[in-house]
Write a structure and sequence with these properties.
Layout (H helix, E strand, L loop, with lengths): L4 H5 L1 H21 L9 E3 L1 H13 L12 E3 L14 H34 L1
Antiparallel strand pairs: 1-2
Helix pairs in contact: 2-3, 2-4
Length: 121
């Protein structure tokens, strides 16, 4: 009997993949904090997760169409050189995403632990 881990892990596997991609985007923003003209980007997590979940339910792979849609971040205080990265905003978003990543990883570990107990009896 075949076992489908995607169904067993539910939305958490998609959430973890999406959080990893968002970590990459936010790290890029932080790395380009002093690059003139750099436009800060971010991912709309809720919308991207909804699309990934819908794709999974239709039988396709969640992210087979490529990376989630990147949106431009609107700065609170635009800089003279055109850079829209605000260090405090990016650091807060990165920290929150890291905590959310850890939470998603914990949920997956709990699911796998439950599956292991079910298999072992």
């Amino acid at each position: 009997m075949a076992f489908n881990f995607d169904k067993a892990l539910g939305i958490h596997a998609d959430a973890l993949r999406l959080r990893a991609e968002r970590t990459r985007v936010l790290a890029s923003n932080l790395a380009n904090e002093s690059t003139p003209g750099y436009q800060a980007r971010d991912i709309d997590f809720a919308a991207s997760l909804a699309r990934a979940t819908a794709a999974s339910e239709e039988g396709g792979l969640a992210f087979d169409s490529g990376a989630p849609e990147l949106l431009y971040r609107v700065p609170h205080h635009p800089s003279a050189d055109g850079n829209t990265v605000e260090l405090g905003v990016e650091q807060a978003a990165f920290s929150q995403n890291a905590a959310d990543f850890s939470t998603s990883l914990t949920f997956i570990a709990m699911k796998l632990r439950g599956l292991k107990q079910a298999i072992e009896g």
